[in-house]
Amino acid sequence: MPKLMNKNDSDQPQWRRMRFKKNKVWVAIDGDGHPIQQKGKLLIKYQLDQDHEYWVNPTNVRPINEKTEVHTVQKHTPAEDSSEQTSQLPNDNAVHIYTDGASSGNPGPAGIGIFMEYRGQVKEISKFIGHATNNVAELEAIRTGLLELKKKNLPIVIYTDSTYAQGVLSFGWKARKNRSLVDEIKNLIGAFKDVKLVKVRGHAGHPQNERADRLARMAVVSGNVHR
């Protein structure tokens, strides 16, 4: 049985790798190896080095080795896919948007880079966005990419190497800053029939993602818009 958390207990929890819905997460456990429970909820986090923690329904938490049914991403819901899975995503009729943001100084002069592909057609955007943080630049790249799309019924795949962007847009992280920008992006996503948000590894040799990175850095250096 899960153990109730003692509010006076100063011991730091340990973490065990488990699955929450479709995602691999870390679940807080006590010294006996039991999941820590408070008010009927379990404590999880998506990355060990992140500050964000969440209390979730234990019925959605399963052992990592348990076979689970694969569900299609629901309408208007961005979903995480690892960089190893990106080659398996359907691409026959999807618009692929590779995004990146850069900031010199964080905050400092910032730019965004976008590489878009659709049925062999390519579009690039390199845009200086003024003084901003790297997180704002990452979000602004996603927002700008979505604003470029006119057809709402095509499947959209957005690629980002930003854990922050993935967290506030896909994992329900509370945006303590940049709330209006996050809300605007969520509203934009809701206007499309099918949107997937894919987390890729930065600087891992992915050609399109590397191109978006170069476009973002070009914008910071030049202070201009190129498209």
Give structural notes:
By secondary structure, the protein is α+β, with helices and mostly antiparallel strands. The chain has two domains: about 10-65, no CATH class; about 85-220, Ribonuclease H-like superfamily/Ribonuclease H (Nucleotidyltransferase, domain 5, 2-Layer Sandwich), CATH 3.30.420. Helices cover about 20% and strands about 35% of the residues. The protein has helices spanning about 135-145, 165-170, 180-190, 205-220; strands at about 5, 15-20, 25-30, 35-40, 40-45, 55, 60-65, 95-105, 110-120, 120-130, 155-160, 195-200. Strands 1, 2, 3, 4, 5, 6 and 7 form a seven-stranded mixed beta sheet that branches. A five-stranded mixed beta sheet has the order 10-9-8-11-12. A hairpin with a 2-residue loop joins strand 9 (about 110-120) and strand 10 (about 120-130). Mean pLDDT is about 80; it is low at about 1-10 and about 65-90.
Please write out the topology.
Elements: E1 3-4, E2 14-20, E3 23-29, E4 36-38, E5 41-45, E6 54-56, E7 61-63, E8 95-103, E9 108-118, E10 121-132, H1 134-147, E11 155-160, H2 163-170, H3 179-190, E12 194-199, H4 207-222
Parallel strand pairs: 1-4, 8-11, 11-12
Antiparallel strand pairs: 2-3, 2-7, 3-5, 4-5, 5-6, 8-9, 9-10
Helix pairs in contact: 1-3
Overview features:
2 domains; alpha+beta; five-stranded mixed beta sheet; Nucleotidyltransferase, domain 5; 227 residues
Fraction of residues in helix: 10-25%
Bin the strand percentage: 25-35%
- Overall average pLDDT: 81
Fourth-tier CATH superfamily name of the largest domain: Ribonuclease H-like superfamily/Ribonuclease H
Order of helices and strands: EEEEEEEEEEHEHHEH
The total of helices stands at 4
What's the domain count?
2
**Sheet with the most strands, sense and barrel status:** 7 strands, mixed
How far is it from the N-terminal to the C-terminal residue, by CA? 58 Å
Under the CATH scheme, which class of the largest domain?
Answer: Alpha Beta
Rg from Cα: 19 Å
Note the overall shape: globular
